[in-house]
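Working notes for the structural subgroup meeting. M.R. asked for a predicted model of this chain before we commit to crystallization trials. I am recording the input and output together here so anyone reviewing the notebook later can reproduce the run.

Input as submitted:
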Amino acid sequence: MANNIGVQAIKYTAKDFSSDQDVRWCPGCGDYSILAQVQRSFPDIGVKKEKIVFVSGIGCSSRFPYYMDTYGFHSIHGRAAAIASGLKIARPDLSVWVATGDGDLMSIGGNHFIHTCRKNMDLKILMFNNRIYGLTKGQYSPTSEKGKITKSTPYGSVDYPFNPLSLALGAEASFVARTFDRDAKHLQEMVKRAAGHKGTAFLEIYQNCNIFNDGAFSILTEKETKADNVLIVEHGKPMVFGKENDKGIKLDGFTPVIIDLKDGKNSINDCFVHDEKDPDPIRAFILAHMTDHPGMPVPIGVMRQIFKETYNEGVDNQIKHITEKKGVGTLEKLLFTESTWEVN
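Returned structure, recorded in token form:
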């Protein structure tokens, strides 16, 4: 995987990214799979581990920095994106990652998240979405479905949930993707794709909390039902799914509909062809909102990837331009400018 941050001189293995800390998640938690696949992916991203930093907030997912043998920072609730942004500006040579959850990022951290996206900070954000608050013992989260019965909503949640992909697209994140904790191969592929992107890379990972929200994504991960309920989107390829690849997605205006590819009326040529590099986000929004329509398959893969100047590059270019124009400044000049005055 091409990357210009501290290209490694040695070949790593997954074990090189495993710390000496005991992993303390509930037995059976999907976080174990995410950790394993990240560790297996990192030898291929082409970055020295001394140049990698994980920043987390608060929640089960936020234990991540302890278990990665890289630099790390366990920060405060909802502020991981803001702290990671400051680190990236101060140290643009680092590959900065954020490990967070749907509660940490979509609730108290929501404001930091949208501004990280709109600024196109060069961060890789891994959001573990289990649609529940796990660390605090099972309250509903901003991604819990309407009507969800939890300890904090005993008669069912009346909230409408966030659609994380749509939120990221609306805030202009330049890389937006989704994967599952139980699809090891696909998860590794998405981690590598995020690593190779320059700009805000947002990866939503559906993750099972087997204690407080067990089976939330079982229809998407169980062998018997996965093929008919998951749509793997790939750039330049028609959208086809089903156990026998006999179903397709066709656009009726802006509305996606399922077509039967064996009924003699439709063919693969009628299917919606995925273009992750489309400068217009409308198609990506259509994919993001397929999740909200019962009966439609859930898309996984890269929904959108565009390339534009990052915030870090903008800051660096501005400093260089002003320095060339006005010369190198000093602290004394800053403190004693025409904006200062004396009070007698």
